[in-house]
Design goal:
TIM Barrel; 9 strands; seven-stranded parallel beta sheet; two-stranded antiparallel sheet; globular; 226 residues
């Protein structure tokens, strides 16, 4: 998905409430302007409502935050979605609390991709490294977003049980699946090459024919070139 996204737009600031230990924002905190924007309480960046989002772009909205975290006020979510609708773009909205997306389905711009993260099926790893709803709840919620384009991102992939992991993702009936490895400094418990290849094989034969499975370049560190 990264190679398809032209830009990001980040109208939320403050620290993301999920506090995932592998968060990509942490890598950027060495820059004072980033540290200032993404620390403290969740905040609405009013000046972003003057940003020209252009046209015919694919934009990852709140790439450094979670727009649908329970701490984000409804009015902020509505304003951001309605602002996106003013521009002729496609958008990616990714959340570890996708159940909340149901409340805003009428407001999502045409062409939106709604996404959640499934890094592993193992609850002990989710508890240690990943915030947001437990993974089964994420999958159930994203799968019930009928009428919307749905995506599962398996990044950063962590150690998993092949059959249980595959069953979770297949249950969500996604339109798009992205699989990638950790690129941060934090060392995560990762799957074996064999497990990843077996998972990809299960997904290739068990998802819909029109489901796109995107293997990100950073996964080569684990499985080599395909």
């Amino acid at each position: 998905m990264k190679d398809l996204i032209i830009s990001t737009w980040n109208p939320l600031g403050g620290a993301c409430p999920h506090e995932c230990k592998y968060c990509s924002t942490e890598k950027l905190m060495r820059y004072p302007v980033i540290k200032e924007k993404y620390t403290g309480e969740v905040k609405f960046i009013e000046k972003e409502m003057n940003t020209n989002l252009g046209s015919e772009n694919f934009i990852f909205v709140c790439a450094q935050h979670d727009l649908f975290a329970k701490e984000v006020p409804e009015s902020w979510i509505s304003r951001i979605l309605m602002y996106c609708s003013k521009f002729n773009n496609k958008y990616l909205f990714q959340s570890k609390n996708p159940a909340r997306m149901h409340d805003f389905l009428p407001l999502f711009p045409v062409g939106s991709m709604l996404c959640t993260t499934v890094e592993t099926n193992r609850p002990e790893l989710i508890e240690e490294f990943s915030g947001g709803a437990i993974v089964e709840e994420r999958v159930e919620a994203i799968g019930e977003l009928y009428g919307a384009k749905r995506m599962i991102t398996i990044e950063p992939v962590m150690a998993f049980d092949v059959d249980r992991m595959a069953d979770l993702i297949i249950k969500a009936d996604p339109d798009f699946i992205a699989i990638g490895a950790n690129t941060g400094l934090l060392k995560l418990p990762e799957p074996t090459k064999d497990d990843v290849i077996r998972l990809i094989g299960r997904l290739e034969v068990s998802t819909r024919n029109d489901c796109i499975i995107h293997i990100k370049p950073n996964l080569e560190r684990i499985i080599g070139k395909r």
